[in-house]
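User: tokens in, sequence out, please.
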């Protein structure tokens, strides 16, 4: 049983029928010395009590109850506003198992460093024990975890983002296994902040941050870094991908999973509204998930996917009735906003909301002064249940997942990369994913036009060596497999004048339609060494005004540029040394050879 007294302020189960869980909670309590322990059951009453407590101490500020019922504003510490990749570690016994794509520490050093920080850190606080399930509670693809945290704000977010509480605890007790996540906000001191992963022990320790991916341990830490490791040993894939369903006028739905680096509009694509003509014809887009996808082969050889999350932790700035009406509709009630500005009548406000209102208070709680800082922090967020999204698919709750017809990779490529191309086969597709990335902008790094590769958008999230990860991807191509086609898209191609050539947003559906036609064998393509490009007359561009330059750059193939790109891809693969799978190196050489031969 627990070493510490139970918090009686809200009804809660006290302890678990699983000795391993009770023992761990007792061990953590002995280390962190909280004043009270609260086992979360996920009930409405528990949530109401937690929210009342946070309102009383100023952690949550009420927003306008008429326009945004049951919605709250949280202001994080100004030094704690984003994920911290430089303080994020993967602690494997062998350094090479974490790979050059991760910061590494030995498990012994990692635990020692973290346990010193956790020592006595919950004195004066309540320790919350949060059982959660990533994925539909009855899904064989779902996996469970328990987050111990001293942040009630984290508990409130976990309740939205995961299936949290009694049903999850029940599943954990039945299965006897769970990911252990220990979190404390500490003193929110950036010099005493680390996010450490121990994949061999299915354990996460996070200290010193209360924000997003650093603190909601079900998300990036569990569902990507730990799960990617677990997926490798169990034969499935844990990916940084949205999942959407594309329904045609005949009522047939194809499911597409798509990986883009952070801040490339994944949430917008997942909630896409078809252009007017498509809507009239009966096309629909269904949202399954906007960030994470767990996939595994089914009995028919196809990949079946679930969204392990239950909510959206979306970027607020730029979200508007034009850019993402579904997101805007989702966040009209029951939403936690973090680090947005507010209007005089306490409505949330951010740059790009474009609703004719004006902010009076910025994200730090100071009078809004555009000369000083934006009203909303650029990484400000909304946390909301996926069930509030008008395009949320009932299939998202399907325990068996949805069959994936196409996998899409994409990045921000102002030059060279056409709007869309299709990989020749699975191995080529894995190479396309391994080579993807974005060209930097001055705002991001100070260096313009430098290619930052972000394989499968997993650079910050793969819990093991990328070379082994590519090998794992390649391993799915085996007898009996019926794998999705793989495509690459680039919504961000620019013209001579530096302006985007493709309208993006709803018009991206035209590209998705071409992909599905390819899957169904109903569209032709131009074969090139880099893959199959659409014949311009086989992609529906009715109503899209494209200049000759735009058509050439969006649908053309620039041999010289690709030759240089493939040299660069070869060097990149070489950075992973002898662990890089030979099949991927051979594929790079095959294409480089084809590019050279045709000169
Ligand atoms: O800054 C954070 O902690 C959040 S990062 C994030 C949140 C939701 C979805 N994706 C991401 C990401 O960085 O990929
Ligand atoms: Mn993400």
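Assistant: Sequence out:
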């Amino acid at each position: 049983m627990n070493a510490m007294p139970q918090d009686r302020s809200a009804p809660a189960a006290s302890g678990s029928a699983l000795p391993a869980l009770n023992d761990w909670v007792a061990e953590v309590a002995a280390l962190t010395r909280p004043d009270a322990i609260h086992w979360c059951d996920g009930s409405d009453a528990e949530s109401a009590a937690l929210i009342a407590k946070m309102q009383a101490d100023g952690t949550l500020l009420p927003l306008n109850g008429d326009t945004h019922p049951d919605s709250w504003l949280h202001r994080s510490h100004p030094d704690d506003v984003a994920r911290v990749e430089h303080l994020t570690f993967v602690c494997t016994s062998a350094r090479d198992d974490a790979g050059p794509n991760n910061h590494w520490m030995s498990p012994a050093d990692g635990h020692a460093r973290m346990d010193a920080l956790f020592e006595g850190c919950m004195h004066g606080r309540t320790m919350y024990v949060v059982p959660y399930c990533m994925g539909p509670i009855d899904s064989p693809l779902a996996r469970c975890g328990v987050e111990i945290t001293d942040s009630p704000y984290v508990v409130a977010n976990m309740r939205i983002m995961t299936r949290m509480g009694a049903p999850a605890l029940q599943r954990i007790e039945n299965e006897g296994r769970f990911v252990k996540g220990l979190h404390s906000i500490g003193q929110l001191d950036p010099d005493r902040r680390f996010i450490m992963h121990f994949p061999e022990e299915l354990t996460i320790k996070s200290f010193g941050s209360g924000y997003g991916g650093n603190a909601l341990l079900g998300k990036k830490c569990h569902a990507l870094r730990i799960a990617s490791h677990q997926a490798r040993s169990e034969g499935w894939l844990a990916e940084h991908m949205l999942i959407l369903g594309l329904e045609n006028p005949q009522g047939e739905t194809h499911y597409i999973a798509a990986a883009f680096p952070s801040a490339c509009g994944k949430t917008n694509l997942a909630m896409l509204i078809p252009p007017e003509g498509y809507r009239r014809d009966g096309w629909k887009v269904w949202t399954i998930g906007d960030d994470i996808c767990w996939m595994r082969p089914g009995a028919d050889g196809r990949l079946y996917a679930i969204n392990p999350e239950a909510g959206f932790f979306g970027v607020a700035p730029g979200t508007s009735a034009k850019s993402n009406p579904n997101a805007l509709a989702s966040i009209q009630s029951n939403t936690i906003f973090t680090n947005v500005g507010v209007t005089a009548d306490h409505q949330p406000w951010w740059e790009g909301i474009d609703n004719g209102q004006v902010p009076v208070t910025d994200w730090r709680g100071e009078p809004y002064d555009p000369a000083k800082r934006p009203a909303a922090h650029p990484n400000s967020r909304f946390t909301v249940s996926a069930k509030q999204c008008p395009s949320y698919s009932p299939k998202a709750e399907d325990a068996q997942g949805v069959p994936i017809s196409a996998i899409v990779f994409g990045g921000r490529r102002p030059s060279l990369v056409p709007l869309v191309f299709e990989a020749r086969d699975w191995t080529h597709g894995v190479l396309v994913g391994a080579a993807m990335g974005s060209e930097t902008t001055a705002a991001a790094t100070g260096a313009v036009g430098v290619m930052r590769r972000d394989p499968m958008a997993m650079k910050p999230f793969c819990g093991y060596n990328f070379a082994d990860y590519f090998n794992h991807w390649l391993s799915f191509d085996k007898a009996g497999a019926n794998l999705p086609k793989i495509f690459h898209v680039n919504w961000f191609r620019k013209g001579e004048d530096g302006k985007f050539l493709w309208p993006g947003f709803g018009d991206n559906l035209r590209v998705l339609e071409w992909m599905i036609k390819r899957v169904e064998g109903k569209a032709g393509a131009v074969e090139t060494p880099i893959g199959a490009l659409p014949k311009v007359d086989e992609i529906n561009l009715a109503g899209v005004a494209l200049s000759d330059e735009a058509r050439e750059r969006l649908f053309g193939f620039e041999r010289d540029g690709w030759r240089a790109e493939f040299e660069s891809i070869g060097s990149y693969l070489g950075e992973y040394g002898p662990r890089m799978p030979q099949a991927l190196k051979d594929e790079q050489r095959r294409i480089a050879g084809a590019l050279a031969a045709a000169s």
